Amino acid sequence: MSDPLAADRLEPPTPGQLRRLLAAERLRPRRALSQNFLTDPTVLDAIVAAADLRHGDRVVEIGPGLGVLTRRLLAAGASVLAVEIDPRLAEYLRRELGAIPAFELIEADALSFHPREAFAGEPFKLIANIPYHITSPLLHAFLEGERPPELSVLLVQLEVAQRVAAPPGRMSYLSVFAQNIASAEVVERVPAAAFEPAPEVDSAILRLRVRPDPVVASDRREPFYRLVQAGFRHRRKQIHNALGREVQVETGTLTAALARCGIDGERRPQTMTIEEWACLAEALREALA
Fold first, then answer.
1. Measured between alpha carbons, how far is 229 from 172 in angstroms, rounded to an integer?
2. How far apart are CA 197 and CA 214, in angstroms?
3. Mean pLDDT calculated for residue range 126-147
Protein backbone atom coordinates (compact mmCIF):
# COMPACT_ATOMS: atom_id res chain seq x y z
CA MET A 1 0.00 0.00 0.00
CA SER A 2 1.30 3.47 -0.86
CA ASP A 3 2.08 5.92 1.93
CA PRO A 4 -0.99 8.20 2.36
CA LEU A 5 1.32 10.91 3.76
CA ALA A 6 3.93 10.73 1.02
CA ALA A 7 4.94 14.15 -0.31
CA ASP A 8 3.24 13.59 -3.67
CA ARG A 9 -0.05 12.84 -1.93
CA LEU A 10 -0.09 15.93 0.29
CA GLU A 11 -0.92 18.30 -2.57
CA PRO A 12 -4.50 18.73 -3.76
CA PRO A 13 -5.27 17.20 -7.15
CA THR A 14 -5.57 19.48 -10.15
CA PRO A 15 -9.12 19.91 -11.47
CA GLY A 16 -8.43 17.30 -14.15
CA GLN A 17 -6.92 14.84 -11.66
CA LEU A 18 -9.84 15.42 -9.33
CA ARG A 19 -12.39 14.65 -12.02
CA ARG A 20 -10.54 11.44 -12.91
CA LEU A 21 -10.31 10.43 -9.26
CA LEU A 22 -14.01 11.03 -8.70
CA ALA A 23 -14.85 9.04 -11.84
CA ALA A 24 -12.59 6.16 -10.75
CA GLU A 25 -14.25 6.10 -7.33
CA ARG A 26 -17.71 6.52 -8.87
CA LEU A 27 -18.22 9.69 -6.88
CA ARG A 28 -19.96 12.87 -7.88
CA PRO A 29 -19.94 16.17 -5.93
CA ARG A 30 -23.29 16.67 -4.23
CA ARG A 31 -24.58 20.23 -4.46
CA ALA A 32 -26.97 19.61 -1.55
CA LEU A 33 -23.94 19.01 0.70
CA SER A 34 -21.97 21.99 -0.69
CA GLN A 35 -19.21 19.66 -1.89
CA ASN A 36 -16.57 21.87 -3.51
CA PHE A 37 -13.11 20.29 -3.42
CA LEU A 38 -10.04 22.47 -2.92
CA THR A 39 -7.50 22.26 -5.77
CA ASP A 40 -5.20 25.21 -4.97
CA PRO A 41 -2.07 24.22 -2.97
CA THR A 42 -1.37 27.82 -1.87
CA VAL A 43 -4.75 27.96 -0.12
CA LEU A 44 -4.01 24.67 1.57
CA ASP A 45 -0.68 26.11 2.77
CA ALA A 46 -2.46 29.20 4.11
CA ILE A 47 -4.98 27.12 6.08
CA VAL A 48 -2.28 25.00 7.69
CA ALA A 49 -0.16 28.06 8.49
CA ALA A 50 -3.12 29.87 10.06
CA ALA A 51 -3.78 26.86 12.31
CA ASP A 52 -0.48 27.33 14.25
CA LEU A 53 -0.16 23.56 14.48
CA ARG A 54 2.15 21.93 17.01
CA HIS A 55 2.98 18.25 17.21
CA GLY A 56 0.26 16.49 19.18
CA ASP A 57 -2.47 19.08 18.59
CA ARG A 58 -5.97 17.64 18.54
CA VAL A 59 -8.00 18.69 15.49
CA VAL A 60 -11.62 18.23 14.53
CA GLU A 61 -12.13 18.47 10.77
CA ILE A 62 -15.65 18.87 9.40
CA GLY A 63 -16.34 17.59 5.88
CA PRO A 64 -12.89 16.13 5.07
CA GLY A 65 -14.03 15.13 1.58
CA LEU A 66 -11.15 13.37 -0.18
CA GLY A 67 -8.77 13.95 2.73
CA VAL A 68 -6.38 16.44 1.11
CA LEU A 69 -6.40 18.83 4.09
CA THR A 70 -6.58 15.83 6.43
CA ARG A 71 -3.26 14.51 5.11
CA ARG A 72 -1.62 17.89 5.66
CA LEU A 73 -2.88 18.05 9.24
CA LEU A 74 -1.63 14.54 9.97
CA ALA A 75 1.73 15.29 8.36
CA ALA A 76 2.05 18.32 10.67
CA GLY A 77 1.77 15.98 13.65
CA ALA A 78 -1.88 16.57 14.57
CA SER A 79 -4.37 13.94 15.68
CA VAL A 80 -7.40 14.33 13.44
CA LEU A 81 -10.99 13.46 14.23
CA ALA A 82 -12.81 13.81 10.89
CA VAL A 83 -16.60 14.11 10.71
CA GLU A 84 -18.02 13.17 7.30
CA ILE A 85 -21.74 12.91 6.49
CA ASP A 86 -21.40 11.41 2.99
CA PRO A 87 -21.10 7.59 3.28
CA ARG A 88 -19.34 7.36 -0.10
CA LEU A 89 -16.56 9.71 0.99
CA ALA A 90 -16.43 8.11 4.44
CA GLU A 91 -15.71 4.75 2.82
CA TYR A 92 -12.98 6.29 0.66
CA LEU A 93 -11.36 7.91 3.72
CA ARG A 94 -11.41 4.67 5.69
CA ARG A 95 -9.62 2.91 2.86
CA GLU A 96 -7.09 5.71 2.33
CA LEU A 97 -6.34 6.87 5.88
CA GLY A 98 -7.85 4.29 8.22
CA ALA A 99 -4.50 2.63 8.99
CA ILE A 100 -3.02 5.84 10.43
CA PRO A 101 -3.21 5.73 14.27
CA ALA A 102 -3.65 9.51 14.56
CA PHE A 103 -6.71 9.47 12.27
CA GLU A 104 -10.26 8.79 13.44
CA LEU A 105 -13.39 9.03 11.32
CA ILE A 106 -16.94 9.61 12.49
CA GLU A 107 -19.63 9.15 9.85
CA ALA A 108 -22.22 11.67 11.04
CA ASP A 109 -23.88 15.01 10.53
CA ALA A 110 -21.50 17.59 12.02
CA LEU A 111 -24.47 19.45 13.53
CA SER A 112 -25.33 16.38 15.61
CA PHE A 113 -21.73 15.99 16.80
CA HIS A 114 -21.14 17.63 20.18
CA PRO A 115 -17.68 19.11 20.85
CA ARG A 116 -17.56 17.41 24.25
CA GLU A 117 -17.19 14.10 22.39
CA ALA A 118 -13.83 15.19 20.99
CA PHE A 119 -10.57 13.97 22.52
CA ALA A 120 -11.85 13.09 25.99
CA GLY A 121 -11.93 16.63 27.38
CA GLU A 122 -8.61 17.84 25.95
CA PRO A 123 -8.28 21.19 24.14
CA PHE A 124 -8.78 20.95 20.39
CA LYS A 125 -8.79 23.01 17.21
CA LEU A 126 -11.47 23.12 14.53
CA ILE A 127 -9.98 23.22 11.02
CA ALA A 128 -12.13 22.67 7.97
CA ASN A 129 -13.40 23.58 4.53
CA ILE A 130 -16.93 24.20 5.77
CA PRO A 131 -19.97 23.32 3.64
CA TYR A 132 -21.52 26.73 2.92
CA HIS A 133 -25.05 25.75 3.90
CA ILE A 134 -24.17 24.85 7.51
CA THR A 135 -21.69 27.62 8.34
CA SER A 136 -23.88 29.64 10.70
CA PRO A 137 -25.43 26.69 12.59
CA LEU A 138 -22.00 25.07 12.83
CA LEU A 139 -20.50 28.21 14.39
CA HIS A 140 -23.34 28.26 16.90
CA ALA A 141 -22.96 24.55 17.69
CA PHE A 142 -19.20 24.69 18.28
CA LEU A 143 -18.66 28.17 19.74
CA GLU A 144 -21.64 28.11 22.06
CA GLY A 145 -20.91 24.56 23.21
CA GLU A 146 -19.66 23.85 26.70
CA ARG A 147 -16.14 23.29 25.33
CA PRO A 148 -15.47 25.47 22.26
CA PRO A 149 -12.35 24.89 20.14
CA GLU A 150 -9.37 26.98 21.27
CA LEU A 151 -8.72 27.93 17.64
CA SER A 152 -10.87 27.58 14.53
CA VAL A 153 -9.57 27.99 10.98
CA LEU A 154 -12.44 27.72 8.55
CA LEU A 155 -12.72 28.07 4.79
CA VAL A 156 -16.12 29.70 4.37
CA GLN A 157 -18.07 31.92 2.01
CA LEU A 158 -16.38 35.34 1.76
CA GLU A 159 -19.50 37.28 2.73
CA VAL A 160 -19.97 35.16 5.86
CA ALA A 161 -16.32 35.56 6.89
CA GLN A 162 -16.59 39.33 6.51
CA ARG A 163 -19.79 39.40 8.57
CA VAL A 164 -18.28 37.33 11.37
CA ALA A 165 -15.16 39.52 11.57
CA ALA A 166 -16.93 42.88 10.98
CA PRO A 167 -15.97 45.83 13.20
CA PRO A 168 -18.51 48.19 14.82
CA GLY A 169 -20.22 50.06 12.03
CA ARG A 170 -20.77 46.86 10.06
CA MET A 171 -21.76 44.50 12.86
CA SER A 172 -24.57 41.96 12.62
CA TYR A 173 -26.05 39.44 15.02
CA LEU A 174 -23.56 36.83 13.74
CA SER A 175 -20.55 39.08 14.39
CA VAL A 176 -21.77 39.98 17.89
CA PHE A 177 -22.40 36.30 18.65
CA ALA A 178 -19.00 35.11 17.40
CA GLN A 179 -16.89 37.98 18.72
CA ASN A 180 -18.39 37.71 22.19
CA ILE A 181 -16.66 34.31 22.41
CA ALA A 182 -13.69 34.64 20.07
CA SER A 183 -11.52 37.17 18.28
CA ALA A 184 -12.16 36.96 14.53
CA GLU A 185 -10.07 37.81 11.49
CA VAL A 186 -10.23 37.19 7.76
CA VAL A 187 -6.83 35.68 6.93
CA GLU A 188 -7.06 35.48 3.16
CA ARG A 189 -9.56 35.79 0.33
CA VAL A 190 -9.93 32.64 -1.79
CA PRO A 191 -11.23 32.84 -5.38
CA ALA A 192 -13.94 30.49 -6.60
CA ALA A 193 -11.46 29.09 -9.13
CA ALA A 194 -9.58 27.41 -6.24
CA PHE A 195 -12.32 24.76 -6.08
CA GLU A 196 -13.69 22.01 -8.29
CA PRO A 197 -16.49 22.40 -9.02
CA ALA A 198 -16.17 26.16 -8.60
CA PRO A 199 -18.83 27.71 -6.32
CA GLU A 200 -20.71 30.79 -7.46
CA VAL A 201 -18.97 33.09 -4.95
CA ASP A 202 -15.51 33.63 -3.51
CA SER A 203 -14.48 32.20 -0.16
CA ALA A 204 -12.16 33.26 2.66
CA ILE A 205 -10.07 31.73 5.43
CA LEU A 206 -11.60 32.79 8.75
CA ARG A 207 -9.65 32.43 12.00
CA LEU A 208 -11.36 32.48 15.39
CA ARG A 209 -9.37 32.41 18.63
CA VAL A 210 -11.42 31.79 21.77
CA ARG A 211 -11.25 34.56 24.37
CA PRO A 212 -10.11 33.50 27.85
CA ASP A 213 -12.87 35.74 29.25
CA PRO A 214 -15.94 36.23 27.00
CA VAL A 215 -17.65 39.60 27.26
CA VAL A 216 -20.88 37.90 28.35
CA ALA A 217 -20.57 34.70 30.39
CA SER A 218 -22.47 31.61 29.30
CA ASP A 219 -25.04 31.85 32.12
CA ARG A 220 -26.04 35.38 31.03
CA ARG A 221 -26.17 34.89 27.26
CA GLU A 222 -29.77 33.92 26.61
CA PRO A 223 -31.27 37.38 27.32
CA PHE A 224 -28.19 39.00 25.74
CA TYR A 225 -28.74 37.10 22.47
CA ARG A 226 -32.47 37.87 22.50
CA LEU A 227 -31.74 41.57 22.86
CA VAL A 228 -29.16 41.58 20.04
CA GLN A 229 -31.49 39.63 17.74
CA ALA A 230 -34.28 42.08 18.52
CA GLY A 231 -32.11 45.03 17.64
CA PHE A 232 -30.93 43.57 14.33
CA ARG A 233 -34.42 42.71 13.15
CA HIS A 234 -34.69 46.42 12.34
CA ARG A 235 -31.06 47.23 11.60
CA ARG A 236 -31.92 50.28 9.47
CA LYS A 237 -33.80 51.91 12.34
CA GLN A 238 -32.35 53.86 15.24
CA ILE A 239 -31.67 51.64 18.23
CA HIS A 240 -34.38 53.15 20.46
CA ASN A 241 -36.97 52.56 17.72
CA ALA A 242 -35.67 49.09 16.83
CA LEU A 243 -35.80 47.87 20.42
CA GLY A 244 -39.03 49.72 21.14
CA ARG A 245 -40.71 47.56 18.50
CA GLU A 246 -39.32 44.26 19.74
CA VAL A 247 -38.77 44.42 23.51
CA GLN A 248 -41.69 44.62 25.91
CA VAL A 249 -40.41 47.58 27.90
CA GLU A 250 -41.71 51.04 28.69
CA THR A 251 -40.22 53.87 26.68
CA GLY A 252 -38.85 55.58 29.77
CA THR A 253 -37.15 52.39 30.94
CA LEU A 254 -35.49 51.89 27.57
CA THR A 255 -34.38 55.52 27.42
CA ALA A 256 -32.88 55.28 30.90
CA ALA A 257 -31.06 52.03 30.04
CA LEU A 258 -29.55 53.57 26.92
CA ALA A 259 -28.42 56.61 28.90
CA ARG A 260 -26.94 54.44 31.64
CA CYS A 261 -24.77 52.70 29.03
CA GLY A 262 -23.83 55.94 27.26
CA ILE A 263 -25.59 54.89 24.06
CA ASP A 264 -27.17 57.54 21.85
CA GLY A 265 -30.63 56.20 21.04
CA GLU A 266 -30.36 57.52 17.49
CA ARG A 267 -27.48 55.19 16.61
CA ARG A 268 -28.05 52.16 14.38
CA PRO A 269 -27.66 48.61 15.79
CA GLN A 270 -24.65 47.83 13.56
CA THR A 271 -22.61 50.62 15.19
CA MET A 272 -22.81 49.19 18.70
CA THR A 273 -19.95 47.31 20.31
CA ILE A 274 -20.34 44.01 22.11
CA GLU A 275 -19.63 45.77 25.40
CA GLU A 276 -22.49 48.22 24.73
CA TRP A 277 -24.88 45.38 23.96
CA ALA A 278 -23.77 43.64 27.14
CA CYS A 279 -24.30 46.78 29.21
CA LEU A 280 -27.75 47.29 27.71
CA ALA A 281 -28.75 43.67 28.36
CA GLU A 282 -27.73 44.08 31.99
CA ALA A 283 -29.60 47.38 32.31
CA LEU A 284 -32.74 45.75 30.86
CA ARG A 285 -32.32 42.48 32.76
CA GLU A 286 -35.72 42.60 34.44
CA ALA A 287 -37.52 43.49 31.21
CA LEU A 288 -35.79 40.62 29.39
CA ALA A 289 -36.51 38.03 32.09
1. 9
2. 39
3. 89
